[in-house]
Specification:
The complex is a heterodimer. By secondary structure, chain A is an alpha/beta fold. Chain A has 2 domains: 31-269 and 469-487, 3-Layer(aba) Sandwich (Aldehyde Dehydrogenase, Chain A, domain 1); 271-453, Aldehyde Dehydrogenase, Chain A, domain 2, CATH 3.40.309.10. Chain A is built from 16 helices and 20 strands. Chain A is globular. By secondary structure, chain B is an alpha/beta fold. The model of chain B has no long low-confidence stretch (mean pLDDT 95). Classes of the chains: A alpha/beta, B alpha/beta.
């Protein structure tokens, strides 16, 4: 059978004229300070670390490193704001501030998209069409909740928690900041947020927006630094809640750190999502979904569909279509509007991905990689897939957080449910089938917080997101994203 | 220097995004201290019919916009009103309000639009449901807009009352034909001007001035109107409208007893009254050993 399946011929690469986003009108400061109590201020120890453009390894800026006393100052100012003006104004007025932030992000969306791409390496098409619009939408959506909480939680007289510490990852820097800050403000809390070390700049541009929106000082504090700064926030005695998005490993250590305290928490952690293709699925659409599921944002997505399960009867044809589709992906300059796959976020992450690719080969899986020319400088990984993968392979068990897909097969529905659930993670899953009844059956059986049926990697502020099991707890987005920031007792 | 001659404003009605005069050519004079403030259109049955047609035509596209998009358009109306505050304040004063009350009314009106602008994408999370039926089915209920809503706005609180009559109706995707305050119609026309500059599609809001006794029954009887939202003091007229609305079982929402000025008016329940509930069944594949439900 398989020998009869014809393959598309890609003689040389598809040539597109470059369409590079202009950075002429952009001004990135040489140095960024901490945003505490409504002011940009130098860190007391005057230490800075570089922010690197991962697509050319050039330094974009220097970012302030917050240490113990800076963190303390940020928490204090958040506390004063909570006890003061912010705690007293009505939900209606809070809403107006948050709407302002949404509008200002919309106004500056182009600039924010370009900086996101320069600092993080993601394709401009994604930062322009996904990250920034979703960030604005998130603020707009939660602004509307600020004066409507009594309808979300009838008879519970919802009250804010106080000062919340928020630590976010480098894969969707501004969007993650929005996911964290918007619901916290809508519910009346004040915030100390730390962006990831390698992607601080858009968070600091957001700090400028917050200043421009005239939020009372101290309501939002944005402090930068590495994991040690995050630790200081987690362990600060005057923080009421920790909201963390990042790896399961760090999530566990945060939970250890706050155990025995009264701190509340939301953990949005790693994943190893199953993407399941049944023989009756619209196969071309499914292949698009698989490509988007694993190669979107270079695979730096906690809900990436990194395990593909194909029903045996369509294995050959799906694999052929998948490889063909991979051949047409364009890897390169993230500022080029044609680019599908940008740069890996950091040198360190590239090493992690490379380590897993080596393990995959060593453990006996078959590797297939897009044969393309990679830029000389910067951190790059071509889209990769492994076949002949078994459930016990490391690449099928562990989160890689890169553009690496592990393909397995199945015969029956029960078999694929067992295989898909055979993981400590449970963030998301995808199902591809023409039968609605099958999709709903799978949706009820898969142990994951988000199920995508005949689609993948869809996000919306109205839609709750978060994981089962070791993928974390609590939900972000929608009505369910409000309660983690409220005292409803 | 000679005194500048002021340009007087012509007050017209608002149908399908345009500002026509009434087809009937009739008008009434609005006076203050025996001076004419404005010539106001005395609209006719034909104007009502034109407005319903336009509201019906745009219903499909307005109701199929994303809730987020409708939210932003409503927010835009508030932004535009904030910029045109003085015009509204002048008109409220011209119609006899004192300036403090006028400022209060415009501020309250803008804030009320902002309040309701937050609801389009939150109505279904509050009122929709997933229903745990005993069979192997995914069963859920969502709220949808009704269609064209005929509105009779209150006589007093000519701006806040009008906003409170229109915004909760259109936010879910309904379109409307509104008969405005008979004795205080000026703000209504200015609101129409704001709406026409706020990305609201033509026909979503239609504004008609004139005699309520004459016009309201035409709205109540119209066979292509799905619901009525009425705020009327005249008991006889109200009863007549309830009676006439039965001809095609229009839903009639009587808000006459609600305190418009009070913040208690602001709730999603007024929005829900202009929506229909739809329940959807979808089978769930059964395993050998279990029945699935949600």
């Amino acid at each position: 059978m398989s020998s009869k399946i014809k393959s598309l011929k890609y003689n040389g690469k598809w040539d597109f004229s470059p369409s590079i986003e202009s950075i002429e009108n952009l001004s990135i400061q040489k140095e960024y300070q901490l945003f505490i109590n409504g002011q940009f201020q130098q860190p007391l120890a005057k230490k800075y670390f570089p922010s690197i453009n991962p697509s050319n390894e050039q330094q974009l800026s220097r970012i302030a490193k917050a240490e113990s006393e800076d963190v303390d100052m940020a928490v204090k100012s958040a506390r004063v704001a909570f006890n003061g003006q912010w705690g007293k104004i009505s939900g209606k007025e809070r809403a107006k501030y948050i709407y302002r932030i949404a509008r200002l992000i919309q106004e500056k969306s182009k600039e924010l998209a370009i900086v996101e791409t320069l600092d993080g390496g993601k394709p401009i098409r994604e930062s322009r069409d996904i990250d920034i619009p979703l960030a604005a939408a998130h603020f707009f959506y939660y602004a509307g909740w600020a004066d409507k909480l009594e309808y979300a939680f009838p008879n519970r007289f919802p009250k804010p928690l106080g000062v919340v510490g928020q630590i976010i990852p480098w894969n969707f820097p501004l969007m993650m900041a929005a996911w964290k800050i918007a619901p916290a403000l809508a519910t009346g809390n004040t915030v100390v947020l730390k962006p990831a070390e390698s992607t601080s700049i858009t968070a600091l541009l957001l700090a400028e927006i917050i200043k421009e929106a005239e939020l009372p000082p101290g309501v939002v504090n944005i402090i930068t630094g590495d994991g040690s700064t995050g630790n200081l926030i987690v362990n600060h005695p005057d923080v009421n809640k920790i909201a963390f998005t990042g790896s399961t490993q760090v999530g566990k250590s945060i939970m250890e750190n706050i155990s025995g305290t009264n701190k509340r928490s939301t953990m949005e952690l790693g994943g190893k999502a199953a993407n399941i293709i049944f023989e009756d699925a619209p196969l071309d659409q499914a292949v698009e979904g698989v490509i988007n599921g694993i190669y979107f944002n270079q695979g730096h997505v906690c809900c990436a569909g990194s395990r593909l399960f194909i029903q045996e009867s369509v294995y050959d044809v799906v694999l052929r279509k998948l490889k063909d589709r991979m051949q047409s992906l364009l890897v390169g300059n993230p500022l080029d509007k044609n680019t599908d796959i940008g740069a890996v976020n950091s040198k360190q992450q590239l090493a992690t991905i490379q380590k897993y690719i080596d393990i995959g080969v060593k453990e006996g899986a078959d590797i297939f990689q897009l044969n393309c020319e990679l830029p000389k400088n910067g951190y790059w990984c071509p889209p990769t897939l492994f076949t002949n993968v078994s459930q016990s392979h490391s690449i099928a068990k562990e989160e890689i957080f890169g553009p690496v897909l592990a393909v397995q097969t199945f015969r029956t529905t029960q078999e694929v449910i067992n295989k898909a659930n055979n993981t400590p993670y449970g963030l998301s899953a995808g199902v591809w089938t023409d039968k609605g009844s099958k999709a709903f059956n799978l949706a009820s059986k898969l142990k994951a917080g988000v199920i995508w049926a005949n689609t993948y990697n869809k996000f919306d502020p109205t839609s709750p997101f978060g994981g089962y099991k070791e993928s974390g707890h609590g939900r972000e987005g929608g009505l369910h994203g409000l309660s983690p920031y409220l005292n409803l007792e | 220097m000679s005194k500048r001659i002021k340009v007087l404003k012509t007050y017209k009605i608002f149908i399908d995004g345009k500002f026509p005069r009434t087809e009937s050519g009739r008008y009434t004079q609005l006076k203050k201290d025996n001076l004419t403030i404005a010539n106001v259109c005395l609209s006719s049955r034909k104007d009502i019919r034109n407005a319903v047609l336009s509201a019906r035509n745009v219903f499909e596209s307005w109701s199929s916009k994303s809730a987020y998009n409708r939210s932003q358009i409503l927010y835009r109306i508030a932004e535009m009103m904030e910029g045109n505050k003085n015009q509204f304040i002048e008109e409220l004063i011209l119609q006899g309000e004192d300036s403090n009350k006028a400022i209060l009314e415009i501020n309250q009106s803008i804030d009320r639009i902002i309040y309701f602008a937050g609801w389009p994408d939150k109505i279904n999370p509050i009122f929709g449901s997933v229903n745990p039926v005993a069979s192997s089915h995914f069963n859920f209920t969502i709220l949808e807009p009704m269609g064209v809503v005929g509105i009779v706005a209150p006589e007093e609180n000519s701006l806040l009352g009008l906003i409170s009559s229109i915004i909760p109706v259109i936010l879910s995707g309904n379109t409307c034909v509104t008969i405005v305050s008979e004795k205080l119609p000026l703000c209504a026309i200015s609101l129409a001007e704001v709406i026409s500059n706020s990305d609201v599609p033509n026909g979503v809001v239609n504004i008609i001035t004139g005699s309520k006794d004459e016009l309201a029954p035409h709205l109540a009887q119209h066979m292509d109107v799905n619901a009525l939202g009425i705020n009327i003091d005249n008991k006889e007229l109200k009863n007549q409208m309830f009676f006439q609305a039965s001809n095609n079982l229009k839903r009639v929402v009587d808000v006459s007893k609600q305190k418009i000025e009070d913040s208690s008016f602001e709730s999603p329940y007024i929005v829900k009254k202009f929506m229909e509930a739809k329940t959807i069944w979808h089978p769930i594949e059964k395993d050998f050993n279990s029945t699935n439900n949600y």
